[in-house]
Amino acid sequence: KRITFSGIQPTGIPHLGNYLGAITSWVSLQNNQSSESELILYSIVDLHALTIPKDAEMLRKSKIEIAIILLACGINPKKCLIFEQSKVPAHSELSWILNCIIPIGWLSRMTQWKTKIQEQKNIQSIEDIDISIGLDLGLFTYPVLQAADILLYKSTHVPVGDDQVQHLELTRNIAEKFNKLYKKNVFPLPQTILVPAKRILSLKDPSKKMSKSSPFEYSRINLTDSPKEISQKINRATTDSQKGISYSPDIRPGISNLINIYSSFTGLTIEQVVNKYENYDNKMFKDSVTEVVIQHLQPIQKEIEKLRKEEGYVKNVLEDGANKANEIAKRNLNEIYKIIGLYH
Ligand code: ATP
Ligand code: MG
């Protein structure tokens, strides 16, 4: 049985990176299910959001807002389960069990906590960061909870952005270790599903990925940004002074990022985009990117406006999703508890 799981944190408003790197792929997986026996779960992972301390009220609001945006982007609750992670306690329970078999060394090699600390504390070089730096345990063990999210449902496929590839590799290692330790094939090794866009970069600093949690608002385009904001942000985007448009992620990361965005939205290949715009200057190309982004987001934003007035419906969708997810999660956790000797 094919089981797909993925998550998004309620740490802010989803941006173009979330959209092109994850949400569009969630929608197409949902729409191209091969059989009724497939199961797809998309979770608003609020426990993960606690690793970046937030005001309680903001977190509450952010969760509903994310649900609205997912639905507006085409996630269909008739074809998959959408739910809040904290409504399914088995995520935390399995996470503890996995914690007990994971060497700290496996986690210290992960780069996500380093890049987040780097931004929080404004540290220049990532090489200067180690676990003695004043790191909260939750941020450090984040990938364990993530592995629990995935393995709890015995997921086989996980559609994520390129920044999560390392955590998925870790998840497979954890699954393998558990299976070996208890001599049972409990967890399938989940496969990473990547879209061609892979990684959308920060408009401010194209050496980093676009992130919800970055303190720099103009580093990202939120799915709810007005045409004016989109235009201002793209115009301000860091590029270079080289003439013409060409694709070279290492030498021209800023322009290449815009080409990637343009290509993802239009369905043109990178090569086709470059051929079309090679003689344009940066400003003219930025105008074309702006136009495509605004055009594409317009129907989604209309749908968001509509759903904002139907909070009752959105809450029902989440509740229904949580009920169904809980059923599967409890069954699987029960099996795991028996295997490790907690239950008779
Ligand atoms: P945060 O900064 O709080 O971690 P985020 O922007 O990284 O937020 P997440 O909720 O952590 O968003 O990730 C949701 C999904 O979006 C994941 O599958 C992740 O891989 C993907 N994703 C996040 N940022 C990008 C990006 N810049 N490009 C492509 N995919 C991305
Ligand atoms: Mg993230």
TrEMBL record:
Which UniProt keyword terms apply here? Aminoacyl-tRNA synthetase, ATP-binding, Ligase, Nucleotide-binding, Protein biosynthesis
Q: Does the keyword Protein biosynthesis apply?
A: yes
Catalysed reaction(s) here are: tRNA(Trp) + L-tryptophan + ATP = L-tryptophyl-tRNA(Trp) + AMP + diphosphate + H(+)
> Which EC number(s) are documented for this chain?
6.1.1.2
User: By its UniProt entry, which SUPFAM superfamilies does this protein fall under?
Assistant: Nucleotidylyl transferase
Task: Name the InterPro entries for this protein.
Answer: aa-tRNA-synth_I_CS, aa-tRNA-synth_Ic, Rossmann-like_a/b/a_fold, Trp-tRNA-ligase, Trp-tRNA-ligase_bac-type, Trp-tRNA_synthetase
Q: Where in the cell is it found?
A: Mitochondrion matrix
Q: Which GO terms describe its cellular component?
A: mitochondrial matrix
Q: Which GO terms describe its biological process?
A: mitochondrial tryptophanyl-tRNA aminoacylation
The top EC class is ligase
Q: What terms describe the molecular function in GO for this protein?
A: ATP binding; tryptophan-tRNA ligase activity
Major localisation: mitochondrion
Q: Entry's PANTHER family?
A: TRYPTOPHAN--TRNA LIGASE, MITOCHONDRIAL
Q: Which NCBIfam families match?
A: trpS (TIGR00233)
- Please identify the protein, giving its name as recorded: Tryptophan--tRNA ligase, mitochondrial
What taxonomic classification does the UniProt entry list for its organism? Eukaryota, Fungi, Fungi incertae sedis, Mucoromycota, Glomeromycotina
